[in-house]
Amino acid sequence: MDSWPIGVFASVDAGLGVAWDVISDLKLPTIQLHAPHQEKRNRESAAAFRSQLDAMNVRCTAVFGGFEGESYADIPTVVRTVGLVPESTRHSRLKEMLEIADFSSWLGCDTVALHLGFIPHDPSADGYGDIVSVTQQLCEHCGQQGQFLHLETGQETAEGLIEFIQQVGRENLKINFDPANMILYGTGEPIEALMQVGQHVRSVHCKDGTWSDQPGVTWGAEVPLGQGDVGMEKYLQALKEIGYLGPLTIEREIPQDPERQRAEIAQAIELLTDLRSKILD
Ligand code: MG
């Protein structure tokens, strides 16, 4: 595989990625896919998606799980609704993640990812052990079919994430690093965080954002790639430094405006292509 193949976050019928019919227009070698709704998470649909991707010469490098009832409206709502952390939905969502792992495996993809939710920062906090345990169960299911589980960054500091990975203690637990999320959630300076968690990073998002005036309390703003506070050149240099050469998956979460989403992704592809030749050649 070429180093740093560019990719895009895509959707079939759920999530904030580009629409399925946009994938071939972008002429990229890879995608990450938001898991489709349950009625399409079966072998037949997976085989159909797989042959469509083959025909487009596109490789799916990760399938992201997401759940009904999740809301990213503001930071307190994320704490309450996102991932496997909220207790009332944990069991049913675990079952759903196991199904998503199976779907991903039928698609020929060895990576499943998710926003786990707000993990308490202190391992002795109430409920921490239960979150470790549900993550272990999911890792074991993935491991049985040769898959990795990637945690999307954002809700934790670098230290919190490293501590959690150690507590789970499963070799197939890795990180999907999203530099913009560190800024949007106010959880740390992204390049510094990347250097800290580097050995665990197995996939990345290329997304940009600006800091909130109250980091960690209110959202920062997601902006087109190259126009935010991440510093794309520094980001790619840091990725090179940690030895990451896998896909650079562009995420631009404005599905409400597909024209603009597509135009800004085209600009992002151009920016990443230029930086890649500057940094790797
Ligand atoms: Mg992301």
Explain what the structure shows.
The protein has 281 residues and is an alpha/beta fold. It has a single domain, classed as Divalent-metal-dependent TIM barrel enzymes (TIM Barrel, Alpha-Beta Barrel), CATH 3.20.20.150. The protein is built from ten helices and eleven strands. The strands form two sheets. The chain has an eight-stranded parallel barrel. It has a two-stranded antiparallel ribbon with strand order 9-10. Strand 3, helix 2 and strand 4 form a beta-alpha-beta unit. Helix 7 packs across helix 8 and helix 8 packs parallel to helix 9. It starts with 5 loop residues before the first strand and ends with a helix. The model has no long low-confidence stretch (mean pLDDT 95). Magnesium ion binds next to loops.
- How much β-strand is present in the residues? 15-25%
Q: From the 3D coordinates, which CATH architecture would you assign?
A: Alpha-Beta Barrel
The amount of helix comes to: 40-55%
Going across the major beta sheet, what is the strand order?
1-3-4-5-6-7-8-11
C-alpha Rg, in Å?
18 Å
Overall domain count:
1
Q: Report the average pLDDT across residues.
A: 95
Given this structure, which CATH class is correct? Alpha Beta
Bound ligands, each once: magnesium ion
Shape: globular
Largest sheet features = 8 strands, parallel, barrel
Oligomer: single chain
| Distance N to C terminus | 16 Å
CATH superfamily: Divalent-metal-dependent TIM barrel enzymes
